[in-house]
């Protein structure tokens, strides 16, 4: 039976569990930090030696941990790209901007178990020779910012932060930095600019890879809240043991944020790939199915920037057959394992782990109009295709939802979206284009029908309410 | 009214500045603190921040105009932010906003924040507040109201009057 497997949220919702350090330590908190600091170096079979810090970084690499913020990039590999020879300080930033529509998982950690993040960060900083780190938290979470500041004070008082962490001779300071309501601050280079006190205009890559030219043009690690929490568990369990959770190349657990037209929306922590998209939506342990009498229309599987999936879609998934050969297996939408690779093979992504469900009572044109308005509002405005295109698409969709549709609007929207993707400084361009490309392609009939109906109404002289 | 930052607040901000290797980084935190204290970010607050951080006023002003949370005018005592984004929209956030706007005699067709003449309320649509599982959600000043109903709206309204 598919069920939750809580590692990160193990204690968060237990009665009596509080966000203070005493409670955290009663539940084994900061043991992983002690273990990390006491890690001995080791000799590798090839005669090379690993320092204690390299051992921890190696364990994170071996764990297979992939970023939980959106791109699903290997955390261990990201850490291995850090320029350690520049002589400049190395910074670490926790991305707690949580602003991808549909996502509300970091909120649970920040409010209910902030010390888990702090411990994960201290270990990650120690392993990467970081002496100064920041938590960039979205401005709309003032309570969580206060909780984090309190948690950091408590950790400081216990000697887990400061000039000489637990007598190890290592120093570390972590500060909370608040954003102020702009989605683009979630993009890592926009975040860095924002933390430097500027407008969050994303930087162009190359050359501004954070691992080399990040905060103050120094090597910088940016990881999501949930990713950093996992580091604590990897140290506790060992990388190889951790990698047994989940499925190959999709290891560990992750928190799914489920919202939209389901009976029980909420967050669910599962072993990656052990639960299917259908189970997430329909199983009684998770979403509990649709509301009575409704049928499924569409699923946004990884935050609003991911490409939509249409009810009834089938995909060819590459799987290992009984003889060890890779074979293509036809897989129904609802049987897709909820993991990084399967959703990628289905032409979309698991992104931030946010699943938004739409049932048959929803008008697809209206849904896309809502999504596009978000991107029109949030474009930072640096690149013309993104700034103009996102607004243009949103305006066209607004027109379509207020009686001004035209039968050619579907192609018109596709044309604009195609001219955004791949032509911008940051991945926001894709994030704005992909919903339009996928919705319009997969539900083209809906868009054409809406446009035709509007044209006919206008021909009969029926003037739409908002066009007088 | 003359612009004076209380000594205690200034001391807090001076401490904040030490969190960063470069002072400029503290500008967002300064603006948050000044907005919290004065209710909005006035031109004087911009100048003061710039002076404290060794910046040109434009370096600070461009933040105020970019980041949606900063306000250049005083706002209502009770600030109501209704989430507009998809999951909340599916759960009826449109009618939640309409409820507030109509009961307060504001213009339902107007975009952006609107403040009542008596200065008691500001109502606006904002983007996803990262609580989509308990949609529709509304932020009332610093607090989140989850699964917001018409009855919740009325409670917020009577409390703020
Ligand atoms: C437009 C945009 C918005 C993003 N928003 C967030 C966010 O809110 N939180 C987050 O952790 N990552 C976000 N990301 C991803 C970050 O750029 C970055 O990849 C991530 O924080 C890295 O952490 P991870 O490797 O631990 O996932 C966003 C990316 C883009 C392009
Ligand atoms: S793609 Fe959009 S959000 Fe990203 S830098 Fe360009 S204009 Fe800004
Ligand atoms: S859509 Fe409203 S909180 Fe996310």
Give a nutshell description of this structure.
In chain A, strand 7 and strand 8 form a beta hairpin. Chain A has helices at residues 21-26, 31-37, 52-63, 75-80, 106-112, 114-127, 142-157, 188-195, 210-213, 225-237, 239-242, 277-282, 340-345, 364-378, 384-401, 409-418, 428-442, 444-459, and strands spanning 42-43, 49-50, 90-96, 130-137, 173-178, 220-224, 246-247, 250-251, 253-260, 266-271, 296-300, 309-310, 314-320, 326-332, 354-359.
Describe this structure as you would to a colleague.
The relative contact order of chain A is 0.11. Chain A has 468 residues and is an alpha/beta fold. In chain A, β4, α7 and β5 form a beta-alpha-beta unit. In chain A, the strands form five sheets. Chain A has a five-stranded mixed sheet, covered by helices on one side. In chain A, strands 5-4-3-6 form a four-stranded parallel sheet, sandwiched between helices. Chain A has a two-stranded antiparallel ribbon with strand order 1-2. Chain A folds into three domains: 222 residues, 3-Layer(aba) Sandwich (Rossmann fold); 88 residues, Ubiquitin-like (UB roll); 96 residues, NADH-ubiquinone oxidoreductase 51kDa subunit, iron-sulphur binding domain (de novo design (two linked rop proteins)). The N and C termini of chain A lie far apart (57 Å). The mean pLDDT of chain A is 96. Chain A is built from 18 helices and 15 strands. Chain B has a five-stranded mixed sheet with strand order 2-3-1-4-5, covered by helices on one side. By secondary structure, chain B is α+β, with helices and mostly antiparallel strands. In chain B, α2 packs antiparallel against α3, α3 crosses α4 and α6 packs parallel to α7. Chain B has two domains: 60 residues, Orthogonal Bundle (Arc Repressor Mutant, subunit A); 83 residues, Glutaredoxin (3-Layer(aba) Sandwich). The mean pLDDT of chain B is 96. The complex binds flavin mononucleotide (FMN), iron/sulfur cluster and FE2/S2 (inorganic) cluster. FE2/S2 (inorganic) cluster binds next to α5 of chain B.
